[in-house]
Amino acid sequence: MNLLIVSTSLNPQSRSAIMARHAYNYLQSSGEDGEFLDLTQLELPPCDGKTCYGHPNTIKVATMVAEADCILLATPIYNFDVNSTAKNFLELTGQGWTDKVVGFICAAGGQGSYMSVMTFANSLMLDYRSVIVPRFVYATGSSFEDDRLVDTKVGERIEELVEIILRFAKSLSSTS
Ligand SMILES: Cc1cc2nc3c(=O)[nH]c(=O)nc-3n(C[C@H](O)[C@H](O)[C@H](O)COP(=O)(O)O)c2cc1C
């Protein structure tokens, strides 16, 4: 299985990026295939519904999404939603999400926004029949110290999420 991990925060001290990196390190240590896409490292055009699709970086990420068996999206929670970079990423890569297993890692400022990813998840389910793993990793600043993830429970949940996504994707591919 090829798991694509996408880090969508543009903050250089991003906590969701730290968690995404934890997921990728775990994926590599378990010997599974996967890629890490850090959107701070690749400038993408804003979606205009037309010319953006011919941009070389759009083509690059659309190919990465299309070739993935499953996707783990790490996102900041902004205004009770994923950030606009995550939304733009979906707008640019849409059809590639079809029938993919998708999981979420969220960094938030407080506990109250824990359902914020649902609008994005609904759109994936309704537009692309994506299979959403119903186990989100959601962490706030209290799980971090000096740009390090210190909450071992969150670390374990990230590892568990990676395993579950791969298990879902393997199970679904064996039935299709
Ligand atoms: C514009 C903006 C909007 C935010 N909105 C929320 C919110 O609705 N709920 C929340 O819990 N935290 C909110 N936060 C706090 C971020 O989720 C928090 O800083 C998180 O660590 C950001 O993720 P990152 O560190 O991966 O960039 C917001 C932060 C910003 C800058």
Give an overview of the whole structure.
This protein has 176 residues and is of the alpha/beta class. The protein has one domain (2-175): Flavodoxin domain (Rossmann fold), CATH 3.40.50. The protein is built from five helices and nine strands. It has helices spanning 15-29, 56-67, 84-93, 118-128, 152-175; strands at 2-7, 33-38, 70-78, 81-82, 101-107, 131-132, 137-139, 144-145, 148-149. A hairpin with a 2-residue loop joins strand 3 (70-78) and strand 4 (81-82). The longest helix is centred in the last third of the chain and has 24 residues, at 152-175. The model has no long low-confidence stretch (mean pLDDT 97). The structure holds flavin mononucleotide. Flavin mononucleotide is lined by residues 9, 11, 14-17, 76-80, 107-110, 113.
Largest sheet: 7 strands, mixed
Number of helices: 5
Question: How many distinct beta strands?
Answer: 9
Strand residues, percent: 15-25%
Which ranges are low-confidence, i.e. pLDDT below 50, for 5 or more consecutive residues? none
CATH top level? Alpha Beta
Tell me the Rg in angstroms: 15 Å
Distance between the termini: 14 Å
Full CATH superfamily name = Flavodoxin domain
Order of SSEs:
EHEHEEHEHEEEEH
What molecules are bound to this protein?
flavin mononucleotide
